[in-house]
Amino acid sequence: MLASMQNHPLLISSLVTFAERHHRDGEIVSRRVEGDLHRCTWRDVAARSRQVARALDAQGLQFSDRVATLAWNGYRHLELYFGVSGSGRVLHTINPKLPAEQLIWIANHAEDRVLCFDVSFLPLVQAIHSKCSTILHYVALCDDAHLPADSGLPGLVSYESWIGRQPADYEWPVFDENSASSMCYTSGTTGKPKAAVYSHRSTILHAYAVALPDGFNLSATDSVLPVVPMFHVNAWGIPYSAALTGCKLVLPGPAMDGKSIHDMIENEQVTCAAGVPTIWQMLLAHVTSGDLRFSTLNRTVIGGAACSGAMLERFHHLGVDVLHAWGMTETSPCGTLGALKRKHLALPAEERARVRLKQGRSAYGVDMRVVGSDGEEIAWDGKTFGDLQVKGHWVIQEYFKGEGGDPLDGDGWFRTGDVATIDEDGYLQITDRTKDVIKSGGEWISSIAIENIAMSHPAVHMAACIGVPHPKWDERPIIVVVKRPGMEVAAANLIGFYEDKVAKWQRPDDVIFVDAIPLGATGKMLKNKLREMLRDYVLPVSA
Amino acid sequence: MLASMQNHPLLISSLVTFAERHHRDGEIVSRRVEGDLHRCTWRDVAARSRQVARALDAQGLQFSDRVATLAWNGYRHLELYFGVSGSGRVLHTINPKLPAEQLIWIANHAEDRVLCFDVSFLPLVQAIHSKCSTILHYVALCDDAHLPADSGLPGLVSYESWIGRQPADYEWPVFDENSASSMCYTSGTTGKPKAAVYSHRSTILHAYAVALPDGFNLSATDSVLPVVPMFHVNAWGIPYSAALTGCKLVLPGPAMDGKSIHDMIENEQVTCAAGVPTIWQMLLAHVTSGDLRFSTLNRTVIGGAACSGAMLERFHHLGVDVLHAWGMTETSPCGTLGALKRKHLALPAEERARVRLKQGRSAYGVDMRVVGSDGEEIAWDGKTFGDLQVKGHWVIQEYFKGEGGDPLDGDGWFRTGDVATIDEDGYLQITDRTKDVIKSGGEWISSIAIENIAMSHPAVHMAACIGVPHPKWDERPIIVVVKRPGMEVAAANLIGFYEDKVAKWQRPDDVIFVDAIPLGATGKMLKNKLREMLRDYVLPVSA
């Protein structure tokens, strides 16, 4: 028997319509590429999103056609989020830090029809546009006064004139909630980039979950600063959750240095900020050097890479709670969030910090498990590690165009490629990437754990741990090290540094000093390149 | 283009599965009909829910068959919530305060197959069972030791032996998320009761919304006490949201007096309690008389009827925030919730209280509007009132079996039957019921506003305001009053009492003193009965 409830599809247009009706004067503050601050409200964003939809109609864009962006966090980008997806097109946010040849490959693969870009990316767009064969329209995210002259881009228009010609009275179309709404390519450290294509339904369910008290905890009393870019997995879903909750949204544009971020937090009374550790490092350095404080910030969401104990401690000292999160492009991205449970409240501070340093637990909507090499689920003991798998409403079923093989196992679990433990309370701890974990004598060694120790040595600037073949133990760990300028350390001393830190069999067998470790577009070490560089390396076998 | 995300139906079984995996030792504390306290965990609830599902299988219950309950808030009722709906049957929670003939009518209309009841309701079940023609199985919510002997109920079994025979290894079925999961009959002050039939999808979307920071704000650090009964619109959805968030759940059983509730709040470190004003009145009286405090309670959700300024003030003084909520059986039930916005934080306390005394604003998922007699939307000015309409994921499309006519207007809005205003910030204020509002000379007079003034007179115990025909003004208000024992007041004095409180044309034209005002099963005044009683009444027309 079917129920007799109303059945409206979960569509992204309903988010901005809701925000317009129920949080009409809710603020959106943006630092623009032009350098100034811009203020608008949800009412403005809703009206201008409808103009975006009309502009796309006027250009003859069809349902599901892709509209690409190369843009920082700002109100125009936000309007595209709702105008593009809301009208049934697919928003394709591109990471501008990718190498030009990858940008071209991605734009062609996605078959982008329109490219909207911040004028700061003009040189990039000029460099690639002749090879982006599917793009018909170029839109610069500025007004006519700021439109670059003689850009060489065919038919380039300013965003303001593009939407300015359109009336704002547009009726959002109603369609299947499983339709594609947006897409993101994975950074592609191995092989060709692959895209996750999100649906309206997955986006809205994710927006609900992320806003929950044990998620980002977003309410209409909050002022939220996503430092995480809107081109990076939709800024972790914050633009959608902001419309859903009516919180104030503070968008930092290209200004991510410590001073700019701190100023924005103080001036806009930010209560919650979300970003990656490298950005927070800059912020904390600025705060420390100036002996500054946070007067309204009470929590920060940290993801993208693990937050260190020192960073957590520093934030805590400044009155800011750290919410550790884990996810990936394929999980929309939030898979786990590190809010405490009732049982933790009475623990001493250092034990609570230990819980917070893990990557968190599942929000309702995504389940997870770790499996052994036999594919069987491993007990949640916080010790035994295995391959992390997830399943849920905002996890991919397959990649765009079905490429990259079947990412699910036979039971429908997505293989994350991470190695992890889960403890009794459901808290995840990422140990390594599957392809980087070192299998030595039937035991697994976390490459991350080994390189973290090296990086705590005063003479080490950067360290990567990789496994190399060994006749007896299958694989043994070695570390590749970049020394700090002007500092010296011998290989033997560095190996000795592990003595009281890990078991003997986990210590690296060798140290190779290099001038630089290759990094990808998102700052991750490219260990596959390292392995290639060391193709001919032979371990000095002693045992 | 469809997205490439996983597509799992939103099913109630996934809530308890989630709670079992991720909040396995999360506590459920219940005061039992037996008088004692019972403690269990989500792991227990999940396992026993699966036993419920198997017990229903064993009895041959089909998909969508109805399973009725007559039960207080307790863990066994909670297990039925998940076991019945999760296995594809429909949970029909019956209000035990209904008159016997209505209980019979409802059970037959719903075609209930099984009735599970707390032993305290045995006399009621004995009185009605011979006329409930569709019920095949009776289950007493107790163990064999407490099973009533010679009950006269055919095949009566104890719940513990009913599920105790079943193993707990049950695979939850997967089916259409729009399938019926549970149903509630409206109290039926006019005509036959009508039922809202909820879906798995509507229940889960409601559970997400209700748990949001601007909703009940539920996290895994909370201890939540739904005093609102599980037979009353699913305890406002709290059992589902509790599983979704992993909060501790405290279930008061039949003990709703002030002392029992206060003890439970203190002993179980309750942080959030939800209930109707009459219950809170008893709680506050107990707290006041004993000069008691709340050591952990920080908020209370109030719905079902309006919270008075005095009650809000009293709670606030005790360190407890009041979250005012509005909803109805047809809206699952949460339509609006009264959390403040950022702009309100800087207001003086009395102005904030004024916002909190309204019924709140929409959570994302339900939209609302007020319309005039022409069906056109009225401006959100907080003054102009009209008929309240709602639309959304957890609002009914029609009543069970399509009875009771089409409850929607032509654009798909549900006509609530309430008269209300909405202010600039989207806060709803319920003014009256559509059928009770008095239309005098083209203007509307709120019957509730008029009776509230009467009830603030020291000699008045209860007052109802109704409209009576008038040759010139169409209708004029009169008040029907029950005096406090031993108190006297003249009609003229009572009318004079309005002098500085409302405009002259809004004052009642007459006062009729009675011994009692007829009340319905949920304590509401039955104004239609009053109107019937006064059928022959003629207004002393002077103007």
Any key phrases for this structure?
alpha/beta; nine-stranded mixed beta sheet; homodimer; about 550 residues; seven-stranded mixed beta sheet; globular
* Average of pLDDT of chain A: 94
Helix content of chain A: 25-40%
Strand content of chain A: 15-25%
The total of helices of chain A stands at 15
Describe the structure.
Two copies of one chain form a homodimer. By secondary structure, chain A is of the alpha/beta class. In chain A, 27% of the residues lie in helices and 24% in strands. Chain A has 15 helices and 25 strands. Chain A has helices spanning 12-22, 42-58, 75-86, 100-110, 122-128, 159-164, 200-211, 238-245, 258-267, 277-289, 309-317, 349-357, 447-455, 491-496, 527-533; strands at 27-31, 37-41, 66-70, 90-93, 112-117, 137-140, 157-158, 180-185, 195-199, 223-226, 248-251, 272-275, 299-302, 321-327, 334-337, 361-362, 366-371, 386-392, 414-422, 428-433, 438-440, 443-445, 460-470, 474-483, 511-513. A nine-stranded mixed beta sheet of chain A has the order 2-1-11-10-12-13-14-15-16, with helices on both faces. The first copy, chain A, has a seven-stranded mixed beta sheet with strand order 7-6-5-3-4-8-9, sandwiched between helices. In chain A, strand 12, helix 10 (277-289) and strand 13 (299-302) form a beta-alpha-beta unit. In chain A, helix 1 packs across helix 3 (75-86) and helix 2 (42-58) crosses helix 3 (75-86). The longest helix of chain A is centred in the N-terminal third of the chain and has 17 residues, at 42-58. At the A-B interface, helix 1, strand 9, helix 7, helix 8 and strand 16 of A face helix 1, strand 9, helix 7, helix 8 and strand 16 of B.
